[in-house]
Model the fold of this input.
Amino acid sequence: MNIVSAGKESETLACQYLQKKGLILLEQNYHSYHGEIDLIMQDKQDIVFVEVRSRSSIAYGNALESINQNKMKKLITTALQYLQKKKWLYVKNSRFDIVTIDLASKIKHPKWIRNAFNIEGSNF
Done:
């Protein structure tokens, strides 16, 4: 399996998992000048920006460890741009979640980390 198809498979698994948990998909692979957000979902009244990470091997670290300060900054900037575009910036609550998937496992069970980071705690 190549990287692109593994990424698409992971995003599909994550999206289905979150939908089963009651979240509603608003956007998938949202692109802006600043970056890309894998999934934008709604959880009750909250807008949820979801980063999906998967690894087929932990030789270079696990999926969660691959999200660094630079990636968080891009996600936050892209999310702010999305909220401004929708005129939701000061109207809707939002959060950043991460879903990780171990592709090497026989059972590809997503791990969902709610409110994984926020704008205030991003250290930039």
